[in-house]
Amino acid sequence: MLLLFFLATIVVASQGSDLGLSHQIHLLTPKSGSGGDYVPGLSCLSWRLGVETRNIIGWTTVPKECGGYVGHYMIGHQYREDSKVATNQAIVYVKSLKLTGDGKDVWVFDIDETSLSLLPYYAAHGFGAEPLNSTLMRQWGNKVKAPALPESLKLYKKLLSLGIKVVFLTGRPEDLRNLTATNLKHAGYHTWEKLILKASSYTGKTALEYKSTERKKLEKNGYRIIGNIGDQWSDLLGTPTGNRTFKLPNPMYYAG
């Protein structure tokens, strides 16, 4: 007996409008088939799952045939919903803590695709299916118009209200300090304990090595990392990681 699934196509206003994007987009609902029939789009969904679970690593661009799928995901409803799951769970976790109030509890935030969104840039450049053009990226970044990821900004404000200090730890180079600080403030992140950018001494080191080393320095200086949030596994792996880690989605690029 053939089981049929009737899937309604839902056209939703872009959730990306909060990020300065105005598209109409079809909600991503994978089609189902039976008897081993080919299901269009399903392979790209599986690729994204592999990326988010770190089964696929070391990739440089989104597969060409998946550029449209990734674009629909990022600008559509699902990306924001997936981000909310991570940040809402982070808020549930932090509300359960008994804080000492000694000023040493910190939460580490990555910046790109965690605190600030580069989605407006990537939307104009294939959603990761095009090789990264560092010159164009820098020109766009110089405009300091990267918006906040709304879910992360909500978490940031909650942490501050509870007396938890925020540390921004980014792979951006040190020469972008002033630009980065300005963009953070424009996006709503008005205060922080530390803003750590990648010094030239880390040239040749992986993102994982760099961020692990900087978190060790925080602990040596007496801070307790009670939480850590990022969009890349290299933000969250290594030692120390923090008491809990939270992974935001990002199928547009990989940083190891």
Task: Describe the fold and architecture.
Helices cover 36% and strands 14% of the residues. It contains nine helices and seven strands. The longest helix is centred in the middle third of the chain and has 19 residues, at 77-95. With 256 residues, the protein is of the alpha/beta class. Helix 3 (77-95) runs parallel beside helix 6. The strands form two sheets. The chain has a five-stranded parallel beta sheet, with helices on both faces. It has helices spanning 42-52, 67-75, 77-95, 119-123, 134-141, 150-161, 177-187, 207-220, 233-236; strands at residues 11-13, 24-26, 105-109, 165-173, 194-198, 224-230, 245-247. The model is unreliable at 1-15 and 22-39 (pLDDT under 50).
Q: Report the strand count.
A: 7
Q: Give the CA-based shape.
A: globular
Largest sheet: 5 strands, parallel
Supply Rg. 19 Å
Record the SSE blueprint.
Blueprint: E1 11-13, E2 24-26, H1 42-52, H2 67-75, H3 77-95, E3 105-109, H4 119-123, H5 134-141, H6 150-161, E4 165-173, H7 177-187, E5 194-198, H8 207-220, E6 224-230, H9 233-236, E7 245-247
Parallel strand pairs: 3-4, 3-6, 4-5, 6-7
Antiparallel strand pairs: 1-2
Question: Care to give the gist of this entry?
Answer:
The chain is α/β, with parallel strands linked by helices and 256 residues long.
Give keywords:
256 residues, alpha/beta, two-stranded antiparallel sheet, 7 strands, disordered N terminus
